[in-house]
């Protein structure tokens, strides 16, 4: 891929939706108009991009340029988000580029079952993110209270003080484990209110620019009819687990649940 035009893949939809027009004026990562490529029951939404910029070798260099990467990622996501608002679509990862339409059609044919399963999974559902941040002082206090209550305060002010002090020292020593346990409990509870859920890698503060202590970075595929219930569950868990602050984000295109990525030819 050193010259000419390649095919940048944004998302795959069902050909049953082929009658729906693409959002007007929608342009892609190279400012190109997006279009469709049909392969039996699958329809790919693509754009023609210059391989001198978006080919395999040039991309390796561009992807190390954070400004270029951010601009391109925003353009890619703008197309995907517009498609998801239009109906069920399986988003593809950034920089999925094929040499030509024939290669794309071959890939769609080879992965038809994967795309079909992914479309069935995301249909009528939306991805939401839940991040959990720990407050060390508040979490230590909460764990201390719980352990003091469980152990009993003993008789007399001195015994009660010693019991609380032991619980406090124990909480300080196990703060990381306690936070991890609460994050796992929160994730398990959220999955019960979703069609699917995944724990993602915790975000590096150097990347996010935040110093908050992240203990959970979860993504959840939620039925559109259950969005309010899911949001209420997040709020309730925030109250139930003092020392842990929950942050709900979304709606997002279902990138975490596409499950179809392979290296394009």
TrEMBL record:
Its main location: other. It comes from the Bacteria. It is found in: Gas vesicle. The keyword Metal-binding does not apply. InterPro entries: GvpL/GvpF. PANTHER family: PROTEIN GVPL 2. This is GvpL/GvpF family gas vesicle protein. It comes from Nocardia aurea.
